[in-house]
Amino acid sequence: MTNFETIRVERRDRVAWIHLDRPEALNALNERLMRDVVAAAGELDADDGVGAIVVTGSERAFAAGADIKEMASKSTAEMRADDHFGEWLKFAAVRKPVIAAVSGYALGGGLELALMCDIIVATDSAKFGFPEVGLGVIPGIGGTQRLVRAIGYPKAAEIILTGRRIDAEEAERAGLVSRVVEASRLLDEAQELAAGIAAKPLPALVAAKAAMDAALELPLAEGLALETEHFTALFDTEDQQEGMAAFAEKREPRFRHR
Ligand code: CAA
Asked: Catalytic positions, please?
């Protein structure tokens, strides 16, 4: 694994952790951090020993947004020319399940990073929001698209147009967060959740994520056809044979993730 400046990468069995580590800027997503996260996620996605990835920040901040100081003086032409946030698409394209373990602030780009993950687990101290309109811009790493798809237009509109922060309980009610845990339990709960997922056959996990992603993009008939294609393709995997044989033989399956 490459050495990184702004993140720490850790392995716990089949779970890989990406710890955002720019405490001086509340993990604001500058270019270096974007490149570090994308490179680490790419390596972990390609590693057969990894079944799930957890992204987390510090107790105080998951991430307080894109780095405002880095972009403040840029012009439209400069933002367009350097495709300022373009690399994040590679993170969103990770094939394996990704969990965001959120404590403290998940604002702007921080919330957008969480929305690129498949599941968000949060502490009761977590604060979510899109302050961008108050800065004279709008969410620019997918927030307008992914929040609307995640929780529906009316609630997303209130969050984006007012810039109001919502707490973990409201985020859970809205369906943004899948579970709220005590601060002291966040890392353990995220590890347990990720380990439970990572123990499942990797080909099935990857196929399930690809099919669910398609639900956000495709008309129903095309999505159903794609689901059938993924479902059918799994019948040539060792893990499908093992999973169904273990069921018939009333024993635990031993998956080889292929
Ligand atoms: N960019 C750059 N630096 C940031 C930052 C950000 N998004 N958020 C925090 N920091 C820096 C602060 O400037 C400060 O640095 P200094 O000590 O050098 O001054 C340090 O992190 C600690 O922050 P605060 O002193 O402000 O901490 P606080 O506890 O008083 O407040 C906060 C915390 C409410 C999160 C506040 O820092 C804040 O409002 N941050 C900005 C949140 C924001 O607007 N995010 C959206 C960014 S735009 C975006 O994300 C666009 C997009 O969609 C792509």
From this structure: 66, 109, 112, 132
Rounded-to-10 torsion of CA 116, 32, 54, 46: 90
Distance 162 CA to ligand 1 centre (A): 18
Q: From CA 164, how far away is CA 153, in angstroms rounded?
A: 16
- Of all protein residues, the one whose alpha carbon is nearest to atom 36 of ligand 1 is 64
- Distance of CA 26 from the midpoint of ligand 1 (Å): 7
Distance 166 CA to ligand 1 centre (A): 17
Place of tokens 């604060």: 127
Q: Which of 26, 85, 146, 165 to mutate to test the pocket of ligand 1 (most atoms within 8 A of CB)?
A: 26
**What would the pLDDT profile of 79-88 be if each residue is shown by its tens digit?**
999 988 999 9
Task: Return the CA Rg of the chain.
Answer: 19
Whether the per-residue pLDDT at 3 is higher than 90: the answer is no
pLDDT for 1: 72
- Give this prediction's pTM: 0.97
The answer to whether 85 and 132 have CB atoms below 8 angstroms apart is: no
Average pLDDT over residues 148-153: 98
SS3 of residue 72 by DSSP: coil
> How far apart are the C-alpha atoms of 58 and 104, rounded to whole Å?
8
Residue 141: how many other CB atoms lie within 10 Å? 27
Distance CA 160, CA 138 (A): 8
Q: Which residues line ligand 1 (CB under 6 A)?
A: 25-26, 28, 64-69, 85, 105, 107-109, 112, 131-132, 135, 139-141, 143
**What phi and psi, each to the nearest 5 degrees, are found at residue 101?**
-105, 105
